[in-house]
Design brief:
Elements lengths: L12 E5 L7 E2 L6 E6 L4 E5 L6 E7 L2 E12 L3 E9 L5 E9 L8 E3 L6 E4 L7 E2 L5 E3 L7 E5 L3 E9 L2 E11 L7 E8 L9 H24 L1
Parallel strand pairs: 3-6
Antiparallel strand pairs: 1-10, 2-9, 4-16, 5-6, 6-15, 7-14, 7-16, 8-13, 8-15, 9-12, 10-11
Length: 224
């Protein structure tokens, strides 16, 4: 399965981790909010103003953190597109999105550059490790399909191919002040790009070329 995750401002690749005996964590949301089923041509609305989650968890000084989890059922293989943006006067330092096929509720979030968070790598060959300077992140044992982050106005979602099934969208981050506004957006399901079939006439043409080539080889062998 080919999966991609494009962000509105920045994309991070997550792989590997560093272990740590001491890890600073904050409480993760204990509620999974149901968005419902989605099929090709449908859309689902993501809105943190109408659901349960953590809006102003204590983080550091005047900063707070937020954590919301949504679930949706994809009824058929499709491409998922969408975007979630600030809609209520957010003033945040980080905004992360994680897509998983396992419910992440009650899993902790890791705090302020904690070494137990996932490491980041660039696209070089071999990849270079990028120092993890995230203020908040998922832990190394939290399963996920794709993830990304932005310190801009929001986060965009694009998946090239996703099988039918149940998925979880987790939105979390750190605010600059003690008050977090709202986030809202939409997810849409589009048909997968079809593979272009080879026209029958082209097949006949290629077969004819092959036959001519074989005839030429036989004649040259007989002449020799």
């Amino acid at each position: 399965m080919k999966l991609g995750f494009q962000m509105a401002a920045a994309v991070i690749a997550l792989a590997g981790w560093a272990g740590s005996a001491e890890a600073t964590t904050v409480t993760g949301s204990g509620t999974t909010n149901i968005l419902g089923p989605i099929g090709i041509g449908d859309t689902l609305t993501v809105d943190t103003t109408t659901v349960a989650g953590i809006a102003n968890g204590p983080y550091n000084g005047s900063q707070t953190y937020f954590d919301y989890i949504f679930t949706f059922d994809l009824t058929q293989p499709a491409e998922i597109d969408g975007a979630v943006f600030s809609s209520g006067g957010n003033n945040f330092d980080e905004f992360h999105v994680v897509l998983s096929d396992v419910d992440p509720k009650n899993t902790v979030l890791y705090f302020d550059h904690d070494p137990d968070m996932y490491k980041h790598f660039d696209n070089a060959t071999p990849p270079n490790e990028i120092p993890n300077d995230n203020l908040i992140d998922i832990g190394k044992d939290t399963p996920f399909i794709s993830a990304g982050s932005s310190n801009g106005n929001g986060v965009g979602v694009h998946l090239d191919s996703l099988a039918a099934g149940t998925y979880y969208l987790r939105l979390f981050g750190v605010s600059q002040t003690g008050s977090v506004g709202a986030f809202a957006g939409q997810l849409g399901a589009n048909a997968l790009a079809a593979t272009t079939p080879v026209p029958p006439a082209l097949l006949m043409f290629l077969t004819a070329l092959g036959g001519l080539g074989l005839t030429g080889l036989v004649r040259r062998a007989a002449a020799a």
